[in-house]
Write a structure and sequence with these properties.
By secondary structure, the chain is mainly alpha-helical. The protein has one domain. 79% of the residues lie in helices and 0% in strands. It is built from eight helices and no strands. The chain is elongated. The two termini are 19 Å apart.
């Protein structure tokens, strides 16, 4: 049991979708699963936001960006539209479940240097997704392990 809990915690720091799948198929209580996955998600957000800032600072110090011609293509237009339309909140909403937490933190750092804002949006998103998934599991009394026995 302790190994499974540790695995859910570690998976929550990187890929929340896999951790949520493990929690849905387990027989753990809502509160235990909630605390475990939110703690893992928040740990991942703090770690990857601060690590990403260090990497970004090192990269900018080591490789000074040179002025270059910016060519716009279809993909870049789509990214610019997404950034203007949804911004950090949109990235945070997609981050824990669809893209990984590390990727969401890195993309957010590319948009802004405000780490407090990144951590706030990402944290709200993690709590929302975990509450939604585990709440639906509790509401509909889903237990895949007992159904498969």
């Amino acid at each position: 049991m302790i190994w499974k809990a540790l695995l859910v915690f570690v998976l929550s720091t990187t890929k929340m979708l896999v951790a949520m799948a493990m929690l849905v198929q387990s027989d753990w209580s809502f509160l235990y699963g909630f605390i475990l996955s939110v703690a893992g998600g928040l740990s991942g957000i703090f770690f990857y936001t601060f690590l990403g800032q260090k990497v970004k600072n090192y990269w900018e110090m080591k490789f000074q960006p040179k002025a270059k011609v910016f060519k716009m293509n279809k993909r870049k237009r789509m990214l610019v539209r997404f950034k203007k339309g949804y911004g950090l909140a949109g990235i945070a909403f997609l981050s824990p479940m669809l893209i990984s937490i590390p990727a969401g933190c890195m993309i957010s750092l590319a948009m802004t240097d405000n780490r407090k804002q990144i951590i706030l949006y990402q944290s709200i998103s993690v709590v929302f997704w975990v509450s939604l998934v585990l709440g639906l599991k509790s509401l509909f009394n889903i237990s895949l392990t007992s159904a498969l026995k």
